[in-house]
Amino acid sequence: MSMETLRTDSAPARQRTPNQAKRAAAAAYLGGTLEYYDYFIYASAAALVFGRIFFPSAGGAATLASLATFGVAYVARPFGAIILGHFGDKLGRKNVLVVTLVLMGGSTFLIGCLPDFNTIGIWAPILLVVLRICQGLSAGGETAGASTLTIEQAPDNRRGLYGSWALNGIVTALILASLVFLPIAALPEKDLLSWGWRVPFWSSLAVLVLAYVIRRTLQEPEIFEETKDNHQTAKLPLVTVIKDHGWDVVRVGFASLFTVTNTVVTVFALAFATQTVGIPTISTGNFMLILLAGLATTSLFYGAANGLYPAFFSEMFDVKVRYSGVAIGLQLGLLIAGFSPAIATWLNGGDKADWVPLAAFTAVVCLLAAVAAATAKETFRTPLHLLGQK
Questions:
Q1: Does residue 202 lie in a domain region?
Q2: Count: domains in the chain
Q3: Comparing C-alpha atoms, which of 229, 100, 221, 217 is closest to residue 155?
Q4: pLDDT in tens, 359-379
Q5: At what angle do helices 123-153 and 62-90 cross, to 10 degrees?
């Protein structure tokens, strides 16, 4: 059988339309913005507040303990990737993406309701970690699901463009979370530690309602619907993806290490600037230089890779295991990124002049990511229904 015949016979009968692709990209963007707004306000609170209200008994290690809770969610992410990836490949991308929002929004609201350590003692950090794990489970399936659904709706020659909107939403969420915390951080310390830090978390109820409405308007991709209708979905996506795409999962995991640059800048650098260097929270001193450096690192270097990887990772996998493959590989790589603020704090040792170990650590993991990405084959001209075929 010729390749042209294979392409014709294998092509999906249902046709994707530009409107469906645009709606998928818009929903991925808005959903990512709303989902990761919840996620990033935790990062700000962990750097500025949580060490003092949930870990006061830790003394000088309070900041390290607080940043470690940020990393705990990254341990939960691979489990979320396995569970949500399984159902995303079995039942549908849209349904799972609704679940991720409800889980994230509910957990975030409850974090804002938690009593502090002085009120309920050790239960305060325990409950914080439990809710943080729930956030991690949600995030484990969010980006992979949004990327998968979007590229499966996009025209074959525009998968990179449409897929990038899922990550544009995450960058927007980072900006919104930072803007929300600027006035909060400027509150008197008593107000900040008692009720001020809670306001961004409580706002997740409104975020949850809006995000739910947006996600419910999505349609399942035609290629997935046909696979499901023809009873061709994988019985156990985890087993199938390891068997048929094991090296692709490993490749995605290493390539995902570039995300270390984001967590180092957004979490460790904020705590480092305010608590080690001594810049006031965080609006004076060399604020413009800090802002420009952060924008250059996040928007240029991190942003360039972010714009590429939704389509790049998704194109490595067959439709039957695409959600699982991207989710599991991505979250394995993000384990290192999640703990990088704690690693950076440990490497730095509180010495504000000793930045070399942190820089070396970040450079090494980025080099590993670049090498992994370079080993992948080019698939941008491959039709959607032939992606992942061996």
A1: yes
A2: 1
A3: 221
A4: 788 888 889 999 999 999 888
A5: 40
